[in-house]
Amino acid sequence: MSFKIMNARWTVVILVATLTACFACAKKSYIDVSYQLPPAAGTLAGHTVFIETRDLRSDTAIFNARAKADFKDFTGLFSLSVNTPGEQQRVVGAYALPKLFEAALKRRLENLGVKIASQQSADVPVFRIKINRFRINLIGQKWKTDISYEASLARDSKLIARETVTGNAERLKLIGSGGAEKVLSGIFSQMINRLNIERLFQEAKL
């Protein structure tokens, strides 16, 4: 093999390695969130709601200073993937924080048989989501997430049932921000699935 051919091949190898390293070091502008949908139940078939989401966080910062350094290119968007039992994981869209909760809870409601109205009307109850806390912190060598939200049902502008869901989780920090995304996906799935939607409908007498 000639020296020129060997030199050309080494040049390609070095170029590929350099590009791979660059992509590996690149900061993402979004955060991946994987939501694990529970098995379909259909227990609330026949019901219809209109979803309304409000961001009521007193502190709208998502990260503490150390976590923010790892997500310095974050644009505020979350790429949501849904894992449905027996099906392949699929990306459903990129959302700001309020719409992230709305998109996940919409699929949870539909999974229970509830239809989602596209417009608000007097004869359709409002399923209201209030986000109270959403934090991703890097403390010591651990990623820590802290989430709290309230879900309620209202009819004729009157609250008829509500439930608050709160939780936190942590994971040892590894290279990059993947550990933060995994711990966030885990706690987010738990928080969405922990909400007892059937009880809300029973309490509201719908």
Describe this structure as you would to a colleague.
With 206 residues, the chain is α/β, with parallel strands linked by helices. It has one domain (28-204): ABC-type transport auxiliary lipoprotein component (Rossmann fold, 3-Layer(aba) Sandwich). It contains 5 helices and 8 strands; from the N terminus they run H-E-E-H-E-E-H-E-E-E-E-H-H. It has helices spanning 3-25, 65-70, 97-111, 178-194, 197-204, and strands at residues 30-36, 48-55, 77-83, 90-95, 115-116, 126-139, 142-155, 158-172. The strands form 2 sheets. Strands 5-2-6-7-8 form a 5-stranded mixed sheet. It has a 3-stranded mixed sheet with strand order 1-3-4. The longest helix has 23 residues, at 3-25. The radius of gyration is 22 Å and the shape is globular. The termini are far apart. Mean pLDDT is 88; it is low at 3-8 and 10-26.
Defining traits:
single chain; 206 residues; alpha/beta; Rossmann fold; 5-stranded mixed beta sheet; 3-stranded mixed beta sheet; 35% strand; disordered N terminus
For the record, the CATH class is Alpha Beta
Tally of distinct domains:
1
So how many helices?
5
In order across it, which strands form the biggest sheet?
5-2-6-7-8
What's the main sheet like?
5 strands, mixed
Q: Which architecture name does CATH use?
A: 3-Layer(aba) Sandwich
Mean pLDDT across the residues is 88
Considering DSSP H and I runs of 4 or more, what fraction of the residues is helical?
A: 25-40%
What letter string, H or E per element, gives the SSE order?
HEEHEEHEEEEHH
The class by helix and strand makeup works out as alpha/beta
Shape: globular
